[in-house]
Amino acid sequence: MIFYFSLQTSVGLTKKRQVFCNMNRRQNCEGMNRASISKPQLLCLLLLEGILFFSAEGTSKHHVPRLKLSYKDLLLSNSCIPFLGSAEGLDFQTLLLDEERGHLLLGAKDHIFLLSLVDLNKNGKKIFWPAAKEKVDLCKLAGKDAHTECANFIRVLQPYNKTHVYACGTGAFHPVCGYIDLGTHKEVI
What we know:
It contains 3 helices and 9 strands. It is α+β, with helices and mostly antiparallel strands. It has a 4-stranded antiparallel beta sheet, with no helix packed on it. The longest helix has 21 residues, at 39-59. Keywords: Glycoprotein. Residues 66-189 form the Sema domain.
């Protein structure tokens, strides 16, 4: 049986070294003394080699999506409802799907949107959460762009419990966090 071991040289190059071994007679192993490899280690080595062989075989195949649709196809199939949002360029960053209450929360620039999963554009709620004016002024003094950097970009929307969501924003480079009370029942928004 032939084993290959990778050895790291002082230059950083990896060299493969062949070790010949008779499984029945350990003392006849060339390039390896009796204490260098035990049966459990050998079993692990063979198992690892098999895993690597089969996983390498799977990576050669190209991953092909089951279904390919263009944006136009989605609109024509009536299975896509674009969110119109606001004309302010809100820079959406984070999403939280609340299937239990039928809501989608969107974190954006200075806003958190609470949207209905039935129709994203119908009766959505909007929470305005800007950075404090003092923090925006400090941000501007630091040389940051007032429109693209000195705002409260919502980065974290995390379920806290059955009624609340934990939300965090950049706060014009002074991070802020808070809790949003979503209520206990599925409300129609």
